[in-house]
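Please decode residue identities from the backbone states below.
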């Protein structure tokens, strides 16, 4: 596993977890700015607000699960076809990660790089993300003659997605 190069070092992860514990509101705003495409301030704000609605202890547990889990040792057991969607520049998951995964997965594995920044192309590069999904699913080109995220149903989905019990 020595050829693997992940996104954050252990000291960065420890600092992230400590920040969640010590000043959750500040961490949520800062983390959103770090992982969402900087050219999309509305998505940064939405993601930051979504994080702030989460209880800090839930966010800490989730962050520990995400950042302290390592499943590289099972990649060679994956034999089904896989598609990995990655952005051009993602501070959380650098491009070395999907390349590593692709080299270890035994089944057919394709990597699609979306020409955008950040960890959440579904928030910031809707059209490109949907195009990649359509290609993967074999559904052909999608009609995207609407503004994603602006309709009343999307606002309701945002509320549902970010809703947590207090």
């Amino acid at each position: 596993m020595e050829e693997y190069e992940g996104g954050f070092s252990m000291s960065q992860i420890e600092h992230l977890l400590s920040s969640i514990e010590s000043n959750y509101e500040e961490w949520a705003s800062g983390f959103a700015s770090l992982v969402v495409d900087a050219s999309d301030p509305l998505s940064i704000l939405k993601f930051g607000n979504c994080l702030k609605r989460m209880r800090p202890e839930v966010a800490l547990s989730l962050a520990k699960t995400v950042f302290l889990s390592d499943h590289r040792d099972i990649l060679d057991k994956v034999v089904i076809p896989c598609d990995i969607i990655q952005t051009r520049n993602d501070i959380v998951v650098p491009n070395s990660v999907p390349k590593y995964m692709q080299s270890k997965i035994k089944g057919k594995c394709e990597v699609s790089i979306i020409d955008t920044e950040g960890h959440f192309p579904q928030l910031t590069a809707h059209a490109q993300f949907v195009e990649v999904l359509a290609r993967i699913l074999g559904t052909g080109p999608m009609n995207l003659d609407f503004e994603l995220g602006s309709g009343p149903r999307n606002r309701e989905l945002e509320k549902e997605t970010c809703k947590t019990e207090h």
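Observation: The chain has a mean pLDDT of 86.
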